[in-house]
Structure formats: C-alpha cells, structure tokens
Design brief:
The complex is a heterodimer. Chain A is globular. Helix content of chain A is 14%, strand content 34%. Chain A has four helices and 16 strands. In chain A, 49% of the residues are buried. Chain A is α/β, with parallel strands linked by helices. By secondary structure, chain B is of the alpha/beta class. Chain B has one domain: Aldolase class I (TIM Barrel, Alpha-Beta Barrel). Chain B is 31% helix and 22% strand. Chain B contains nine helices and 16 strands. The longest helix of chain B is centred in the last third of the chain and has 15 residues. Chain B is globular and about 50 Å long. The chains are: A alpha/beta, B alpha/beta. At the A-B interface, strand 14 of A face strand 5, strand 6 and helix 8 of B.
Chain lengths: 263, 302
C-alpha cells in the first residue's frame, strides 16, 4: 500500500564528495518495499524545486526500520537535500514502481550498476541473497570517487569494478570488464549468468542490453525518465515499448529489454 | 461548521473541490493516498473516440513555480474506457466525470454519446482547449464559432451535465464563454494550461518533444483568477475555477471572483491528498471569518 507521510531523518552521511546518504525511519513499521522501487521526495524551501524528486531505494534495514536513500547532488533540489540534518523530517511518497524481478534459489544473477545507478542494487543484492540466489556485482564509475558502499556490496556477492580513468578496478566501461569478456584461456563467468539486472546512465544500459542480447541472457533495466506524479496519472514519464507508450513510474521503472524498442 | 456542499448545474458535491483532468488519472491511482469520497468531483483523464498514443518523450519540463507538459491526450479510446475502466470507477463515491476531447465536432459528439450511456457518469467536461494536439483541441476553443460548433454538436448527443473547459490562450475569454453558454453548456471550467516553451541551453534544444507545451502550477494562478473574474461577469451558468491552486486561500480567491467550485490539477503531483486538505481548509477559513456557507463569498468581487 502506498503512503505519503513525513519520515524522520535519523542520519545524514556524506559517503563521498557529491553524494549524500539519508537514513529515514518512521514510528510505524515501514511498508513492504521491493528492491528497485523508488520514492518521491518533497523538497521544501527550495523555490526552484516545484515537483517531487524520484529517488531509488538504496537499502531497507528491517531490524532498524530504516529506509536509505543514496543521492547524487546534481541540482538545487538535491543540494537542498544534502543540507538536511538528523532530526529533520522529509515528506515521502512511497513505495512506487514495480521493482526488480524477485530472485529464486540457486539463480546466478549479474547486477550491473553505473554511477549513482548502483544505489538500488544494494537492496537487490541483499534481496537476492535472502532468496538463495547468487548475485554478482559489476559496478562502474567515472572514477574511484563515484563508487560507493563497496564494503556493503561485498557482504552479498563478488564485486567487480571498472572506472573510466582507471583509478579503481579495471579501466574502461562496465562492458570492458573481464567479467563480460573471455579470458585468454577462453574461460568466463558470463555463460553461467541466468539473467542481468542493470541500472545506470542510458548509454551504459543500452550497451549492457546489446551484450545481453548478443549472449542470449535475459536482461532487465531500470529507467529514470523525467516524471511528475510517480503514480501513473500524469503520463509524463512514458517510454516507448512494444505495447506502446507506458508510464515508467507505474509499469516500470524496471523493464525487460525485450519490452523496449531499443535497437 | 460552514456549509460547503455545492451544486453545479445539477451535480451535487460534498464540497466544491474537484480534481482536474490529466492530473488524477482515473482516481484509482490515488485510492491508497486519499479518501476519494471526500472529493467533490473527479475529472478523469481526457478521452477521445479513437485511441491515441500521445506525443513523444520528453513530455514534461519543470519551470519556475510550475511545469510544462505536452502529453498530447494519450488514452485508449472511449470504447476501452467504457469496457475496462468504467467498471473500476463506477462505484467510487464521488462525481466521476469524463473529460472528452476530439478532432472534429462529430468525434466529440460520438464520444459524448457513448459516455451518455454510462449510468454512473453524471457529467462530462468538454476539452476544447488542449494546447498539445495538432488537430482539434485548442483549435476549437480559440474562436467563438469553433467553440459553439463543438458544444452544439455535443449538446444534441448528450443530455446530462455538460461542462466546457476553456483555453486562456485567446484574446477575449469572456466572448468564448458566452458563445458556449449560448450553445448549451451547463457550466464552464477554466483555465486550461497556458501555452509555453522552455529551452535546454546546453543541448541548444527545446525541452519538450513538440517544442511547446501547456504551463500549469502556481505560476499561472494570477492569469486564471483574472480569467475567472472576466468570465463570471459575462455568463449566467456556473463557473469552475482552476489554475495553480495549492491552498485553501488560493481557492478562496477564485470563489471571490465568481467561481462556484474549483479544480486542483498540478497540486495533486506535490501532495496526493491536497484536494481533501484544501476542502477542509475552505471550511476552516469560512468558520474563521464567520461565514455560514460558501455562497456568502462567491462573486463578492465584481
């Protein structure tokens, strides 16, 4: 059931320059939230921020009844969010969207994240692990400073890293990772992934989608089209699909690449 | 407690607050978040005779105190509405109103005729003011001849409450209002969005796929209040005011210049329960000012 309420900020962390991690809680137990779902945040006292801001769910700490949002500071609205402090409250509309495919026991799933798109994969990796699946994480960023929460990711699966400047892990894009390319001996993990879930910049997701099609691996991607309502009412955030224009906020944000019209 | 029950051209409403078309889906999307029975009327997404895919993405741009949209009437057509959506909304305890659009008077009339058959739809709102479609839409709403032609055609096909939604993108909105009144409208609602444009200067391109779109939100409220004031003086039929209403105080402005009811649109995106909060706020405001009913303030500014 969707809710729209003030959640209390219990911690504001700055895991790296340009990012803020908000940890929110509520007096009542948080509703069930699936990995890949998102929230819409109302940003108060920011004159240029009229609409709510959609933010993916980074992590749900059930024991502490906490919802984590990992936010990249890119504009006036997110700058304002970064100035919030523990004890402040934040009006949140949630949980929204469909979420990633639930995991099944024994499944080997590759999670590919780019930039702040890695955020929802932390909760997903945990959810897969709890379901008895094995997540592999391939995380890419421009530079080492863009790769956050690696220690947390390692609790749930093997982590492979690429950076465009080579400051951490292998140099290049995620699609350049040795994980997706045959080693000299001809061995690779790749054939054994049953499916891929991907979140990041659109060009990166399109590259991963091409790789998945080429290697006949099922693949889903999480889109972040500009949106207003978050509820499927305004029809602003549509993506062209094989079924016509559909709302990313309601039918997505996660889509099987076969449903999209990407070439 | 002040009496805020409202009757508009035969429509009985628990309060004068309605939700504007295109901002509240079919109501069901908001059922978790607000008590729909406490909304005076729910005007559902624009419906056309034939299905429409709408315009390409991007369809939305946030602007100062508002937003532009160019959705372009995406909907699955009136037959789909009757067969698949109506069964889901017919028992919602509010006035469930269909917003009807088209590209010719015959289209509008045929669409209205099909909705006329649905028992639990007590009214339609005729959209002769959509700025985001090439054919029809706003084209009818910007001339007195076009407006009355569409309204006459629909009036012949539709015998329940007929509300006509007016465009602010005209030289004299009072003239248009008078022409739709003469053609048989039971009420008018205004304003639809103001045509606008925004540019992404880094990409050197318009921010919307079809270049222009409709501006809504608090940015348009003063224009809307002015239009309602002009129209309320020009016609005898009830006027429903909308444009940038976010608070009860905003709504009171519209009542004072002659609106008998109001619609909330873009505000639903900021707070899904805004309509019920505004309704409560109107009642509280009237109480604080010693008014026994809403009628005491409607049209007090001439």
């Amino acid at each position: 059931m969707k809710q729209c309420k003030d959640l209390k900020i219990v911690a504001v962390e700055h895991p790296n320059q340009g990012y803020v991690l908000l940890k929110l809680t509520d007096a009542e137990p948080l509703p069930e939230i699936r990995a890949g779902q998102f929230v819409e945040i109302k940003v108060d006292n920011s004159p240029s921020t009229f609409l709510r801001r959609p933010i993916s769910v980074n992590f749900v700490d059930e024991a502490r009844n906490e919802l984590w949002l990992l936010i990249q500071i890119v504009g006036e609205g997110t700058r304002h969010l970064a100035r919030l402090q523990a004890g402040d409250s934040l009006n949140v509309l949630f949980p929204l969207g469909n979420g990633f495919t639930p995991g099944a026991a024994g499944e080997r799933v590759l999670l590919v994240g780019g930039g702040v798109g890695i955020a929802p994969l932390l909760q997903y990796a945990k959810q897969l692990r709890q379901a008895g699946a094995t997540p592999y994480l391939l995380l890419g960023g421009r530079s080492a400073g863009n790769l956050l929460q690696l220690d947390l990711f390692r609790q749930y699966g093997e982590v492979y890293v690429t950076t465009e400047d080579g400051s951490m892990g292998e140099q290049g894009f995620v699609t350049n990772s040795s994980l997706l390319n045959l080693s000299p001996s001809g061995e690779s993990e790749r054939g054994s992934f049953q499916r891929i879930s991907c979140c990041g910049p659109k060009p990166m997701m399109q590259a991963v989608a091409r790789w998945a099609k080429q290697h006949q691996v099922r693949c889903e991607v999480s889109l972040e089209n500009l949106m207003a309502c978050g509820l499927g009412a305004c029809l602003c955030c549509v993506e062209k699909t094989v079924r016509g224009n559909v709302c990313v906020c309601k039918e997505g944000p996660v889509f099987d690449i076969e449903a999209l019209t990407w070439s | 407690m002040a009496d805020i029950r409202t009757t508009i051209a035969g429509l009985q409403m628990v309060n004068p607050v309605m939700t504007a078309s295109g901002t509240f889906g079919y109501g069901i999307e908001f059922a978790d978040l607000v008590d729909l029975s406490q909304i005076g009327g729910i005007i559902m997404k624009g419906t056309t005779l034939q299905p429409r895919e709408g315009n390409d993405y991007p369809r939305m741009a946030e602007t100062a105190s508002g937003m532009l949209n160019c959705v372009g009437l995406q909907n699955k057509g009136v037959d789909y509405f009757c067969q698949h959506i109506y069964p889901q909304v017919k028992d919602i305890p509010s006035n469930m109103i269909v917003n009807v659009s088209g590209s010719s008077p015959d289209d509008y009339a045929e669409c209205a005729a099909r909705i006329n058959q649905l028992d639990n739809i007590p009214a339609i709102e005729l959209n002769i003011s959509c700025p985001n479609v090439k054919q029809g839409g706003m084209a009818f709403g910007v001339t007195t001849e076009g407006a009355s032609q569409v309204v006459r055609a629909v009036r012949r096909a539709y015998d329940k409450t007929l509300i006509v939604k007016l465009s602010p993108n005209v030289t004299n909105i009072a003239d248009i209002a008078r022409s739709v009144e003469d053609a048989g409208a039971d009420a008018v609602s205004l304003i639809n969005t103001l045509m606008g444009m925004a540019v992404d200067i880094e990409r050197r391109k318009p921010r919307l796929s079809i270049n222009t779109g409709g501006l809504s939100g608090p940015a348009v409220k003063p224009v809307a209040v002015r239009c309602v004031w002009q129209v309320a003086k020009a016609v005898q039929i009830p006027v429903i005011g909308l444009g940038g209403i976010m608070t009860a105080e905003d709504a009171i402005e519209f009542f004072m210049v002659g609106a008998s009811a109001i619609e909330i649109g873009t505000g639903n995106f900021i707070d899904p329960a805004i309509s019920v909060k505004v309704a409560q706020g109107i009642s509280d405001w009237l109480d604080r000012h010693g008014c026994k009913s809403l009628q005491e303030i409607v049209g007090i500014i001439s």
